[in-house]
Every structure is written in C-alpha cells, then in structure tokens.
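cron nightly-structures :: item 1 of 1
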Amino acid sequence: MDEALKKAEVLIEALPYIQKFNRRIIVVKYGGSAMSNEELQRNVIKDVTLLKLIGFKPIIVHGGGKAISRWVAKSGKEAQFIGGLRVTDEETMEIAEMVLGRVGKQLVSMVEALGVKATGISGKDGGLLTVRKKLSAGQDIGYVGEITDVNPQILYDMLERDYLPIVAPIGMDENFDTYNINADDAACAIARAVGADKLVFLTDIEGLYKDINDKSSFISRISVSDADRLIADGYIGGGMLPKLANCTAAVRGGVNRVHILDGRIPHCLLLEVFTNRGIGTMFYPDEEQDTLPQ
C-alpha cells in the first residue's frame, strides 16, 4: 500500500505540470553519452514518448558526433576540430549525412515501437534550415553551417498530424550545398522558430556551476541577465560558453524555459519537467526575476 501511495503522490505532483504544458511544444536536443549508451537511449525515448502520449508536442533534435568520428576513422581519415567545431570536407560531410540519417531512423524505430508515430527528417527537408558557411576563429572549416533562416512549416504539419518529428542537424545554403550544423545551434533555432514553451539540452554535465570545482555552487535556476554576468565575470568558459549562449538566446527569442540536464541520469527529462525541485539548471526571462520563489 505504501508503494502504491508513493506512486499516487508522484502522479498528483505531476498533474499541474501536465495541465500547464498540455499541447505545448517542447524541443529536446539529444546527444552525448546518453546517445551512445543503449539503456540510456531507451530511457530518453521512453521519456519523450510519454510526453507525447500525455499531450505535449515534442520535437527531437539529435546529434551524432561520436558516431561520425567512428565512421570518419573507419574511412582512414582523422577527425579534426578547430574551436570545438569539426573540420568538414566534402567526404566528411557525406559521412556525417549518412550517419545522422541512420541515427535518426534508429530513433524513429524506437519511438514507433512504443506506439507513437514518428518521422525522421533533416534540415534540408522542406527548406527547414537554411545556412551560410560558418568560420571558426576566422578559419574556413569546410561544410559547417551557420543557420540564417528556419522554415518551421514542415514541423507544424507533422505535429498537426500527430507525428513526433526527429530532426538531423543538416542544412543547405542558397546554392543548395549541404552543411553540417552544430546540434545545439539547430535546437535553439528550431525552438525559437516554432515558439516552443521549453527547450531541453541533454548533456554530459549535471547543469551549471558558478565554480565547476565546487559542487556546492550548483545553480538550479538563473535569469538570462544573471547568466550573462557569470560569463562577463569569467566564471564560465570552455565548452559551456556556446551552450550558455544558446540558452540565453533561446529565452530572449521567446522560449519560456530552457533546461540543461545530465542525460546520463535515467529519466532526467521526466524528473525535471514533472517535479517541483527538478534536477538540472533552468533559464528563465528577466521579467520573472521577482515572481519566482527564492
């Protein structure tokens, strides 16, 4: 009986969140270690599928960097990075498109096996993502794209027909050349374009720390201006800088909430969305600074 009551309490705690976000769009950027571990992969897909079944409108934007690197190595090439971005020549671009397409279809199969309709697309489909060549520290790194325009109509159509869209971060420029896109950038741009209520980054870290070496400095929620101050004061650096920039840009672009979660924690998505405390870092607009409980 006690176990049954605990389950009932969990459901009751989730009820107001289910009511609040019913029919709202949530974009989930999925990658990192959670994608390379089969059990964690199943957990993430179960979480997103559950969101869909209870009334959310989820969109998955997936990465695949580790898989791309493996296939690049199999081809006899060595992966190169400049400023954290993959140097992508024509052959590497072909490999990336092949691998990301394969990853997307695998995710589609997992969702469909749970009884939900899903469709895998890339940013090339329907002109979803238009890009221009992106430079890294002023250097040409090949077919790496910076998003200039998002046409969300294909995503709206899929959501309207009750499909779960699964998007590979690939786009085309004005000459219809194919480019690889950073998955975080793609998720941020898509979330803003579709008017998502939430954007969730599943990462390999627990969230945001003021001091990465001090676990007591964990930040569970932060306004975008406070996040900017952390960067300006030198607290944030390295690989967290572009991710933090995407978080604040998404909120300023109209996304109500942005979350950074540790995708290695089983069912982290449900724990963040449906519990009062959550487990990651939440970013929110400045105008709500005085309305949130302290």
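cron nightly-structures :: done
Confidence is low (pLDDT under 50) at residues 290-294.
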